[in-house]
Specification:
It holds the Pfam family PIG-L. The protein is α/β, with parallel strands linked by helices. It has helices at about 15-25, 50-65, 90-105, 120-125, 130-135, 165-175, 185-195; strands at about 1-10, 30-35, 40-45, 45, 70-75, 110-115, 140, 155-160, 200-205. It has a seven-stranded mixed β-sheet with strand order 5-2-1-6-7-9-8. Strand 3 (about 40-45) and strand 4 form a beta hairpin. Helix 1 packs antiparallel against helix 6 (about 165-175). The longest helix is centred in the first third of the chain and has 15 residues, at about 50-65. The chain is globular, with a radius of gyration of 16 Å. The structure holds zinc ion (ZN). Zinc ion (ZN) binds near residues 10, 11, 14, 119 and 122.
Length: about 210
């Protein structure tokens, strides 16, 4: 069981895609999800109207989390590659918002993406670790799917968050609600991968904090 946490999600689907089983099963006590790059003009069908796509993503996320407890915060920074032509965030500004969320929610832990796939928005979000550690927060990472699990960072230990098959079924059902971002074929492939691995989602926590 991971202590009460704030999850920082680069995009709207990342937290649930990576930790949805743990959230549904209650293995992970997440009080807040901070979505950093929640403005987008990109769908899996191509580019669309910025306001429409952003609103659609927000609506999808609302349906996925409808009856789940984590509060969701949207920082509405434009995602990659939009953010190279529109205003970009400074890491200390984003880290300050995350710090404030941790304080208000009385969280013990901040979970950042391990940035396994090296996407620029995931890299940015992972690199908040230095600011957040400097501010005194305990930082861990989650294996951000759909990529294979990475090597455990030095000084950290992998912790498998196991959930039930029922929760995995429900996770797959809800992932389909992110229909502008995730294809049904991907959801089916993700389910099979998860089944092979015994329905475990992975976080990396500092050595000594997992006992
Ligand atoms: Zn993402």
């Amino acid at each position: 069981m991971i202590a009460r946490s704030v999850i920082v999600s680069p995009h709207l689907d990342d937290a649930f895609l990576s930790l949805g089983g743990a959230l549904l099963s209650g293995v992970l006590d997440a009080c807040v999800i901070v979505n950093v790059f929640s403005t987008s003009d990109n769908t899996r069908f191509g580019t669309g109207d910025l306001e429409e796509v952003t609103a659609r993503r927000r609506s999808e996320d609302g349906r996925v989390f409808a009856d789940l407890s984590p509060q969701r915060i949207y920082l509405d920074w434009p995602d990659w590659p939009l953010r190279f032509t529109l205003p970009r965030p400074r890491d200390e500004d984003v880290a300050n918002v995350v710090s404030a969320a941790c304080r208000v929610a009385n969280a013990a832990f901040v979970l950042l993406p391990a940035s396994i796939g090296q996407h620029p928005d995931h890299d940015f979000t992972r690199q908040l670790d230095r600011c957040l550690s400097d501010s005194g927060w305990m930082v861990g990472y989650y294996a951000d799917l759909p990529y294979e699990q990475p090597q455990c960072p030095p000084g950290f230990v992998a912790s498998g968050l196991r959930h039930r098959e029922d929760d995995a079924d429900e996770k797959a059902r809800r992932l389909l609600l992110y229909s502008s971002q995730i294809a049904a074929a991907y959801v089916a492939a993700d389910y099979r991968r998860s089944q092979r691995q015994g329905f475990v989602e992975t976080v990396f926590v500092p050595v000594g904090s997992d006992s």
